[in-house]
Structures are given as C-alpha cells and as structure tokens.
Amino acid sequence: MSLIIHIYYTGQNGSARKFAEEMTTSGIVDRVRQEEGNLSYRYFFPADDPETVLLIDEWENQAALDCHHRSEMMQEIATLRTKYRLRMKVEQMERQENRL
C-alpha cells in the first residue's frame, strides 16, 4: 500500500505557478524525488483555475512520508510557500494493491 498526497497551492497574480517554478529551478523537486520511499512528485496546472497548482506526490508508506516531513527540505518548502503567500488544501489517499 502506498500513500498519495494531493496538495492544492492557491495564490494570487500567478504566485502558485511561480512557487512551482522556483521549487523546480532551485533543485528542491529533484531532491525530494531522490528521497528514499518517494515514488512520484509532480506539479499540475488546472485549466480552469490559473491561481492554483496541484502537487501529486506518492510515497511507499507512512514511514517514508514521515521521514520526508522531518527533512530539512520541509523548511525550505515552507519558506517558499510563505514567500509566495500561498494557501494549501491537502488530501491523502491510500493506494491498495490489486488482489485476486
């Protein structure tokens, strides 16, 4: 079973998109993707809401996600979130493996 996280970042005047761009160009995204237990970490831009960015990330298990949350990168991410004055909405789901 893996964990899938949806984080909706919403701002004003394109700030959410700028946040995602800086996350990428600063190398934070690549570092998260290299963390043990990370299966996916991708940004999406809703066609009907130019002020929101959706992050979908997937982790092998709760322990991997907890380790990520304790990492130094979380402070870097929080600093950028504050810089761009973003609001967050978080959803967490479990992916169940197919069973016969």
Automatic annotation (TrEMBL):
<keyword id="KW-0503">Monooxygenase</keyword>
<keyword id="KW-0560">Oxidoreductase</keyword>
<protein>
    <submittedName>
        <fullName>Antibiotic biosynthesis monooxygenase</fullName>
    </submittedName>
</protein>
<dbReference type="InterPro" id="IPR011008">
    <property type="entry name" value="Dimeric_a/b-barrel"/>
</dbReference>
<feature type="domain" description="ABM">
    <location>
        <begin position="3"/>
        <end position="93"/>
    </location>
</feature>
<dbReference type="GO" id="GO:0004497">
    <property type="term" value="F:monooxygenase activity"/>
</dbReference>
<dbReference type="InterPro" id="IPR007138">
    <property type="entry name" value="ABM_dom"/>
</dbReference>
<dbReference type="Pfam" id="PF03992">
    <property type="entry name" value="ABM"/>
</dbReference>
